[in-house]
Design a protein that fits this description.
Layout lengths: L3 E5 L2 E8 L6 E7 L7 H12 L3 E5 L16 H12 L3 H16 L4 E10 L1 H12 L5 E4 L18 E6 L7 H11 L5 E6 L16 H19 L1
Parallel strand pairs: 3-4, 3-5, 5-6, 6-7, 7-8
Antiparallel strand pairs: 1-2, 2-4
Amino acid sequence: MPDITINAPDGQFMAYRADPAAGSGPAIVVIQEIFGVNQVMRDICDWWAGQGFIAVCPDIFWRQEPGLQLTDQTEEGWARGFELYQGFDEAKGVEDIQATIDAIRGDAACSGKVGAVGFCLGGKLAYLCATRTDSDASVGFYGVSIGNNLDEAGNIAKPAMLHIAEEDGFCPKEEQAQIHAALDGHDKVTIHDYAGMDHAFARAGGEHYDAGAAQTANDRSAAFFNAHLR
């Protein structure tokens, strides 16, 4: 399906949508990395559609540079991605994700159940989905700076899952320990640690991609969403 338009309180933004073969089902909001709604994110949406979910990836950088599609394969892509990340309004981003949840939940093809899965920056936002939105289930892959918002853990009322790379250069071991201390006892939260893995181990084609760990994380996520969205 071509890109769709989502209405936000302060404007409109694009989202990539992929539909399952059945044409209907529960939905998953796929939250981008710092590289925009690029081919990697579109491929992830297509994969989730292949698992029987409507998958929608909103352009959360639309206020800064709409339609951005960077690559992690160039220094220029990394530099621009980090620049946008530094200027990103996190609270507005969560509002955009809620707007996307509302839009797809109201779509006739959607069962009414909507989850969220995010990567890197999106992994942090997936955690914030669990604390600030009405997502029915949320999954974060190697989220950055989750430690800054652990005081929100008490707001988590729906199932959440975090995938943590133990050698993540963007989430030091001290922060990982803080995340475990705050969330291990939470009955709605499941945390999986990946020994020897670095940041973005599930990004196909990335420097730290590990096919085995990626498949394990994806399988766990699919089982999680099948349990909580169907």
